[in-house]
Structure formats: C-alpha cells, structure tokens
Specification:
The chain has helices at about 40-60, 100-105, 115-125, 185-190, 195-200, 215-235, 245, 250-265, 285-295, and strands at about 10-15, 20-25, 30-40, 65-70, 110-115, 135-140, 145-150, 155, 235-240, 275. It is an alpha/beta fold. The strands form two sheets. Strands 3-2-1-4-5 form a five-stranded mixed β-sheet, sandwiched between helices. A five-stranded mixed β-sheet has the order 8-7-6-9-10, with helices on both faces. The protein is globular and about 55 Å long. The two termini are about 25 Å apart.
Length: about 300
Amino acid sequence: MSVGADELPLAGIELGGTKCICTLAHGPDAIIDQRTIATTTPDKTLPAILAALHEWEDSHGFRALGIASFGPLELNPASPRHGQILATNKPGWPGTDVRGVLSAPFAVPVGFDTDVNGAALAEIRWGCAQGLDDFAYVTVGTGVGVGLIVHGRPTRGIGHSEIGHIRVPRLPTDHLPSACQFHDDCVEGLASGSALVARLEGRAVADLTPNDPVWEPIVDVLATMCHALVCATGPHRIAIGGGVVSGQPHLLERIEAALRRSINGYMELPPSDYIVAPRLGASAGPLGSIALAAGACG
C-alpha cells in the first residue's frame, strides 16, 4: 500500500557551530531516526548531511525539509545570496550556500531559518510558548543567539534578529577582552560560553558554585539583553537555554530578578516565570528544524 504524501515524515537539519543534528520525525513524540555529524568544513560536513538525507529518501521518503542553521544568514529570497551563511565567526563558512546545497537534490518544500528561530518555533508548537505569538528564545552556548518571534513570525528586515550582538554597558570592574571578533562589548563577546572560559582562567565550570563572582557580569549582561528585548518587542515570555545556562539553573532566577530591577516598574511584566528554561530542553534545536519543515508544508 502506498503512503500518502501527508503521511510521510519530515526531515530536519540543525546545523550548529560544533555539530549538526539530522532528524527524521513526525514530531517530538515520533522520531524515526536522528544522527549527529561534526561541523568541520563545508566540503566535509555538507556531503555527510546529504548522505543521510539520501538514505532517508530511499528508506522512508520525506514530505518537507527544514534547515535551521547558525548564522548570520541571508534569508531574503530576492537576494542573490539567499541561503548563504554571511559574516560568521566560524572560519571557512562565510559564503556557503547551505540552503542551496542541502535542498537541491530533493523535490520537497524547504523551510530555512536560523537555528534559534527554529528552536523558538518549536517551543511555540510543542514547548513552553504554546499559545504565544510574541516570544524570545535565547541560547547561551559557544555564542549567544536569540530567536525572536513577533506576531507569530520570526523578525525580518535587513536581516534576522542578532540580539546576541547588541552592545551593552560593562560593569565597572569588568575588563575581559571580548570573545567576539566584531564587537568589544556585545552580549556574545561578554556572556557566551567562549567568554565564560576566558573568565575562568583555567578553572573548570564544574567547580563553580552559584556564589562564584564569575557569574556577576554574565547575569548583568544577559539581564541587560533581556531589558532590550522587553523594550523593543515585548515578548510574553523569554526562554533561555544553551550549555552555559542549562547547567546552572540558579542563573534564570538571578537574570529575571536583575531584569525586574532594571525595568524598575516602567513596563509591567507577567508576575512570575517570565524567564524560563526551554520546555524542550536540548531537543529544542533539533526539533526547530522539524518545525521549519512543518511550516514549509503550509
């Protein structure tokens, strides 16, 4: 018996800075296959992803493809660079036509967006932001990315949201050299996992206590970023995940408390649980690619 097109699974590619997670699924509770591929160079990583996609096409078929990639990305379909990675910090990847290379062999609808926008859409579809049209998903890992959803759609304009690169005032005692090659005082440069490693000066993250002074500038920077989000687009909720925060649950309460002090009553925030952990946890990113594929189906 043949399978109808709408019964076929969805294929998703979450292309991250260190690894790529390829997922074949109907949704979060129906994952058929999932594979991890190292993100090295385009000429090695993309063929490995294509091999997995071709195998899935032969064994199961899929009705749409979602590509959720690290950025920045050219998302304007009218641009000659549509589908390319732009001025990333990751060597070898600027100018790579991620969308074109990964989608060309397959005659299916394609959803293409940033990895954090995909994760935000997954949290709206299946996670902590169900029922919300205005939502921000933040990941604090090697870099800092923000998936910003306004009126149910990811923000657009001259580019997608790059809130991780807004410039923020430092604490007077903070003299850390920025971990970002583009900005001396942006959120990513001061509060990412790369910045945390520099702040530790050889100490292990596992040895840190919640009261360690290394957290003070990170809380301050992330709360300042959240203040900007609140004042700019007023998300109904902000979810913060990623390796830096997920292993330190005390940070969410501290960031929310600092945000409330910073807003100082000027705008009315929900009374509790405004800054939360992603309900999908580490699966938010991989499921983001599946959410993009589902959205491409119409």
